[in-house]
Write a structure and sequence with these properties.
By secondary structure, the protein is an alpha+beta fold. The protein is about 35% helix and about 30% strand. The chain has one domain (about 10-185): 3-Layer(aba) Sandwich (Aminopeptidase), CATH 3.40.630.
Length: about 190
């Protein structure tokens, strides 16, 4: 029997991006903490037009990018963003990115739930062999989450990021499909 709840978890769901979601992203980028955790570019407020351009670019790159809004089951509000992109189909690899933009929804497990859904999608629907991501050394909550999910630290981009006059490392993490299956087989039925 196939899984009919591919995009639904106990508290959140992954949906398509909608034009109105750009308003949520504009608010998120007004929060320097979000900008500094999600992006290696300088943290600064983004305009609605800039966010819409990014969303349009994601939509145009539909063969190599799968982008999702993270929404609570009880609401249409976009509380986060997740994507698989840079997919190399011949190698069955992809890059993963995730961010919980709404500060009221951080630290309560929505990111964990969204990661489970995104990885299940990547390994079981896209049939990927490897998923990889980068994370900044100061994002300790994300690092703990990735390691709990089975990601392994594979490399370090030494002093790759400059914040507040200090250099920080950026870590490369990877997860292979057989590692995912071994660790989460009972959760993916």
């Amino acid at each position: 029997m196939i899984n009919s709840t591919l995009f639904y978890g106990p508290r959140i769901r992954l949906t398509a991006l909608r034009p109105d979601d750009a308003h949520a992203w504009v608010r998120w980028y007004e929060d320097a903490e979000f900008g500094r955790m999600f992006d290696s570019n300088p943290a600064y407020p983004r305009s609605y037009n800039r966010v819409r351009t990014y969303m349009d670019d994601v939509e145009r790159n539909k063969d190599n990018t799968y982008a999702f809004a993270i929404r609570p089951l009880y609401s249409e509000d976009m509380i986060g963003y997740a994507e698989m992109d840079g997919i190399a189909w011949s190698n069955r690899t992809a890059w993963l990115a995730i961010g919980i933009g709404d500060p009221n929804h951080r630290g309560i497990g929505y990111g964990h739930e969204a990661m489970l859904l995104l990885l299940r999608f990547g390994f079981y629907e896209l049939n990927l062999h490897r998923v990889q991501l980068t994370v900044f050394e100061y994002n300790t909550r994300a690092i703990a989450l990735y390691e709990r999910l089975g990601f392994q630290r594979e490399g370090v981009y030494r002093e790759a990021l400059l914040r507040d006059g200090k250099h920080f490392d950026m870590y490369l993490y990877g997860l292979l499909s057989h590692e995912w299956v071994e660790r989460h087989a009972d959760q993916n039925e």
